[in-house]
Amino acid sequence: MRKHLAIFKKGIGELILDGTKTIETRFSKVKLTPFGQISTGDLVYIKPSGKDIIGEFRVKKVIFFDGLDGQVLKEIKVRYGSQIVADEAYWKRKEAANYASLIFISQTTH
Hints:
Layout: E1 3-8, H1 12-17, E2 23-28, E3 43-48, E4 55-66, H2 70-84, H3 88-93, E5 99-109
Parallel strand pairs: 1-3
Antiparallel strand pairs: 2-5, 3-4, 4-5
């Protein structure tokens, strides 16, 4: 089991802790952590940008996408969008990504 620190934009950490957001995503053009570095059972500390850690969660499952394209991004949005809890602007910003990490959240603690 590894430990990770994840920094979130305002309000996202709270959505994880209250159970609204059950999948965290990380998209990138190049392979960046957590791609290939996070695993089932790992502990993730939740830290809002500019603030202290507010909680943590265990990783239930991870799915990595290598060579992401528009069709796969659309499939992720359709299949997991309600659990990712993101607006249309978020998805638009991710269109140029080549890699994605879908991190399924369990066992949140404040």
